[in-house]
Automatic annotation (TrEMBL):
Domain Thiaminase-2/PQQC: 10-220
Metabolic or biological pathway: Cofactor biosynthesis; pyrroloquinoline quinone biosynthesis
Protein name per UniProt: Pyrroloquinoline-quinone synthase
Gene name, Swiss-Prot/TrEMBL: pqqC
Reaction catalysed by this enzyme: 6-(2-amino-2-carboxyethyl)-7,8-dioxo-1,2,3,4,7,8-hexahydroquinoline-2,4-dicarboxylate + 3 O2 = pyrroloquinoline quinone + 2 H2O2 + 2 H2O + H(+)
EC numbers: 1.3.3.11
InterPro entries: Haem_Oase-like_multi-hlx, PqqC, PqqC-like, Thiaminase-2/PQQC
GO biological process, one term: pyrroloquinoline quinone biosynthetic process
Keyword Heme: no
Role: Ring cyclization and eight-electron oxidation of 3a-(2-amino-2-carboxyethyl)-4,5-dioxo-4,5,6,7,8,9-hexahydroquinoline-7,9-dicarboxylic-acid to PQQ.
Organism: Actibacterium lipolyticum
Family note: Belongs to the PqqC family.
Pfam families (alphabetical): TENA_THI-4
């Protein structure tokens, strides 16, 4: 039986309440000031891989969209990350955070030290958006419903607990406080409009669950590798490498 718009929106929001990665132990460790400098660096390196693939994911999505209105609405997401005149973009802001924690930005951008599980999860998300229905692709982006809360908590927690945190290093998160609500308002309305059968509602809900799994698995990988340093897999970032010269001295 097809749920009403209100019932279906409540179902989507409940997925976030139960499965969003703000409940992960690594999230709490980071925001409470419990991470070592190297654990923060590992998070920055691995999260960069996710950030860098978001515009690639969105470009793959747009390549399949025939409706010009949907393409116009969606393309600002690419500009938010890649930048445009007067906006350096989220990727550059993330690399500024990398420099603030003592990492060499070129090393981070190379993705050489990314954990295998991070790479597999993020690449799976790009493929999901490229290959699944447009409805499922848009629904997967609806983790943005829950993002402003985690960004606000992250700003507060990092400022309170880490010397590197200031307006410059945290500018990525501050910008997302205004960018994400704009994106999700459109995406949520689009999903509610197009998930007009019980089967489509199930597909959209499962797509959102898939995306929460992608985010959760990234923190699982970080916690496994760097909270217990003996479990860093071959090829992943090793503490003491990839640092700015002054941090290495």
């Amino acid at each position: 039986m097809t749920a009403s718009r209100e019932e279906f929106e409540a179902r989507l929001r409940q997925i976030g309440a139960e499965r969003y990665h703000d409940k992960h132990p690594f999230h709490h460790l980071l925001h409470s000031g419990g991470c070592t400098p190297d654990q923060v660096r590992a998070w920055v390196i691995n999260r960069y891989y996710y950030q860098s693939r978001i515009p690639m994911k969105d470009a793959a999505f747009m390549s399949r969209v025939e409706d010009p209105a949907l393409r116009r609405a969606w393309r600002s997401r690419i500009e938010d990350h890649d930048g445009r005149d007067g906006n350096e973009g989220g990727i550059r802001r993330w690399l500024r955070l990398a420099e603030a924690v003592g990492l060499n930005a070129d090393y981070v951008a190379s993705a050489q030290g990314v954990l295998p599980a991070t790479r597999f999860a993020v690449d799976a998300y790009v493929r999901f958006v490229r290959d699944k229905t447009l409805l499922e692709a848009v629904a997967a982006s609806l983790t943005e419903l829950f993002a402003p809360k985690i960004h606000a908590a992250r700003i507060e927690g990092l400022l309170a607990n880490y010397a590197f945190a200031d307006d410059s290093s945290l500018s990525y998160f501050r910008n997302r406080l205004t960018e994400a609500p704009k994106d999700v308002a459109f995406g949520l309305e689009w999903v509610l409009d197009h998930a007009d059968t019980a089967e489509k509602q199930d597909a959209a809900a499962n797509a959102l669950i898939f995306k929460t799994d992608v985010l959760w698995s990234q923190l699982d990988a970080l916690h496994s590798a760097y909270v217990d340093p003996a479990r860093i897999p071959p090829g992943a970032w090793q503490p003491g490498t990839g640092l700015m010269a002054q941090a290495a001295e």
